[in-house]
Write a structure and sequence with these properties.
disordered N terminus; acyltransferase activity, acyl groups converted into alkyl on transfer; 10% strand; three-stranded antiparallel sheet; Citrate synthase; Citrate_synth-like_sm_a-sub; single chain; Citrate Synthase, domain 1; transferase; Cytochrome p450-Terp, domain 2; Citrate_synthase
Length: 572
């Protein structure tokens, strides 16, 4: 019998001796092409299941199992009809070698025998989710020396794929740490450019001053996520439907690892985010303490702050976690935060605009589609639009207000909840994310004054009217880009494909009015959508900030008098 490791092209031998299967090492493996998982962990007592006489393993102490998942598992397993996503397994630990013990001489026969024998203190192994639902699982006895988790239950594979994501980061981090050290030692004194008075007085525009790994903005061609343009991401990232838009989970994987994920990895990440998405009741109560007419961003940011009590980083730091491991609880916090934002954001939307009638999540949907569903929009085209919207707005390098704020606050070792809440407050400004709201209101004002059949000359006159009144035309122009923003281009292509005859789109095909077309017309809410998306970019970089050990950000400030004296001395 052989198991093939997903981590290595080499085959690992599995010995069958006296009913015991011996496996060296731990990790994600494949049995005849089917993923299974083997992991060593300390021995834990087996607890009884209240719903049956078949005991299941206690997973609350499993190594590297996030406490939030363990708590969620413990909560859900008390609900009627719940099938544990941690069904399954096999047991033992002996100096780095696992032992699969049971009435069958191999995993293959254990699976094909269907509902096998019941062994006290044993664990279940299932070939697929259907076998789990029908309870056609196999019982295998526990070895007293410890435990190895091993299952073919697809629900558990979801969790294991997430461990694969984390293991990829664990492999990448030392390489990137060495790369950073080499860059600093060999080129630390290299000048990147000259700082001018205009830069100091002009919001540091054009000043290169921070490290941001997940994306890079080119003035001529737009954003690149880990080197890939938006059109390239649309081509290579997994989609929910053939020929559809990229799944945001795929871009999250790309931002974290720099690698394009498989569809299986993206599906696993999607389900893992769903498993992390339960929001504590106190968060909703905190939001409910605000006036219903409070701005959606105020309510959304309040919800994020209320989530902060769940911070794994804060708890680990208080317990003396070494700096070299800061990235691990940061990773847990960021994924938990990303997972919980759609329920919080949709709650805010339904509270303000839909009389507080919330919609439960649909566990069969992916991240963006589920968000759209909880908002109350189930049109398949709207689901595709939400996937596109969340994907393309995840990141826009580090110099914009929200990204820089998240990085700055995180550099003080504030946990990801505090850092992201600060970023959201920056995003809420009219010169940043709130432009999403302002631009649609401006477009509607054009229609109110000129009618839907506005000509180019009428539109030109209205633009000049706006400018001459001392106002700006919101949502147009960019501090860095000098050509058409590719985020706009791909949304325009979506509109041409799905809603070419929409009157608002025909009028402002140069603007972009997709959300309004599908019924999400509450412009005050648009920045919240932006915030949900931006969590993936800011969160990914926060993880890398801690992994690379980036220091506290502390630039030098000067007064106008200092600048005047410096310039005089320079001229002399």
């Amino acid at each position: 019998r052989f198991l093939q490791s997903s981590e290595s092209p080499n085959w690992q031998k599995v010995e069958v001796n006296g009913g015991h299967v011996h496996v060296s090492g731990s990790g994600i493996w494949k049995w005849n092409g089917t993923p299974i998982y083997i992991r060593l962990a300390p021995h834990q007592p087996v607890e009884d299941d209240d719903r049956s006489h078949s005991p299941r393993p206690n997973l609350s102490g499993l190594k590297r199992l996030p406490s939030s998942l363990a708590a969620e598992h413990a909560r859900r397993r008390r609900q009627p009809g719940f099938i544990s996503p941690f069904l399954g397994a096999v047991v033992a630990e002996r100096s780095g070698h696992g032992v699969l013990s049971g009435p069958h001489r191999s995993l293959e026969t254990a699976i094909t025998h269907g509902a096998g024998g019941h062994h006290a203190g044993g664990c279940e192994v299932a070939a697929d989710a259907e076998r789990v639902r029908s309870r056609k699982t196999v019982r295998l006895p526990v070895m007293p020396c410890g435990r190895v988790l091993c299952t073919l239950d697809s629900m558990l594979i979801v969790f294991l794929q997430m461990q694969d994501l984390k293991s990829q980061l664990q492999e990448l981090i030392p390489e990137q740490q060495d790369r950073l050290k080499k860059l600093k030692s060999e080129h630390g004194k290299t000048q990147l450019g000259n700082i001018t008075v205009d830069m100091v007085l002009g919001g540091m525009r054009g000043m290169t001053g921070m490290l941001w790994e997940t994306s890079l903005l080119d003035p001529e061609e737009g954003i690149r996520f880990r080197g890939l343009s938006i059109p390239e991401c649309q081509k290579v990232l997994p989609t929910a439907v053939k020929g559809g838009e990229p799944l945001p989970e795929g871009l999250l994987w790309l931002l974290l690892t720099g690698k394009v994920p498989t569809k299986e990895q993206v599906d696993a990440l999607s389900k893992e985010l769903l498993a992390r998405s339960t929001v504590p009741a106190h968060v909703y109560k905190t939001i409910d303490a605000l006036p219903v007419d409070a701005h959606p961003m105020t309510q959304f940011t309040t919800g994020v702050m209320a989530l902060q009590v769940e911070s794994e980083f804060q708890k680990a730091y208080d317990n003396g976690l070494p700096k070299s491991k800061f990235w691990e609880p940061t990773y847990e916090d960021c994924l938990n935060l990303i997972a919980r934002l759609p329920p919080v954001a949709s709650y805010v939307y339904r509270r303000i605009f839909k009389s507080g009638k919330s919609i439960e999540a649909d566990n069969s949907l992916d991240y963006a589609a589920n968000f759209s569903h909880m908002l109350g929009f189930d049109d398949p085209k709207m689901l595709e639009l939400m996937r596109l919207y969340v994907t393309i707005h995840t990141d826009h390098e580090g110099g914009n207000v929200s990204a820089h704020t998240g990085h700055l606050v995180g550099s003080a070792l504030s946990d990801p909840y505090l850092s992201f809440a600060a970023a959201l407050n920056g995003l809420a400004g009219p010169l940043h994310g709130l432009a999403n709201q302002e631009v649609l209101l401006w477009i509607k004002s054009v229609i109110e004054e000129t009618g839907s059949g506005v000509t180019t000359d009428q539109l030109k006159d209205y633009v000049w009217k706006t400018l001459k009144s001392g106002k700006v035309v919101p949502g147009f122009g960019h501090g860095v880009l000098r050509k058409t923003d590719p985020r706009y281009s791909c949304q325009r292509e979506f509109a041409l494909k799905h809603l070419p005859k929409d009157p608002l789109f025909q009028l402002v095909s140069k603007f972009g009015v997709l959300l309004n077309h599908f019924g999400l017309s509450e412009a005050r809410y648009y920045t919240v959508l932006f915030g949900v998306s931006r969590s993936m970019g800011i969160g990914s970089q926060l993880i890398w900030d801690r992994a690379l050990g980036l220091p506290l950000e502390r630039p030098k400030s000067v007064t106008m008098e200092w600048l005047e004296n410096y310039c005089k001395n320079k001229a002399a």
